[in-house]
Amino acid sequence: MTCIAPDRIAAPRIVVGVGCRAGKSPEAIEAAIAAALARRPGLALADIVRVATLDAKAAEPGLVACCARHGWPLVAIAREAIAPDAPPGDGTAPSSAAFARFGVEGVCEPCALAAAPHGRLLVPKTIVDGVTVAIAGPA
């Protein structure tokens, strides 16, 4: 048996899915991400390997600036990849607002899952001041 000090254990690599209202600041988006991370002890900003959002939101200035500030790649998920006819059972909560505006049943949760192949939802949708955040990562 090998003993490993807790500080030497590799941190989980996570993907953050983000949805937001137009005009949200980088600080508001970062605050929402921090709130979602706080829901799962042991997760930190340094564990994020990428941020994913819906293709329609990928050019949102606050989101782009937040990702650039932290060096996180921003991945745009095509609406077709999370279309309402996609297989159910991914554990995401439907959003009537996302469906009305974009024709999808959610943004943050399905985008996080789509950008984390073989991952699972670690933190469900967290809503903070017009920003939605979900976290996916290894099972």
Automatic annotation (TrEMBL):
Pfam families: CbiG_C. One of its GO terms (biological process) is cobalamin biosynthetic process. PANTHER family: COBALT-PRECORRIN-5A HYDROLASE. This is Cobalamin biosynthesis protein CbiG.
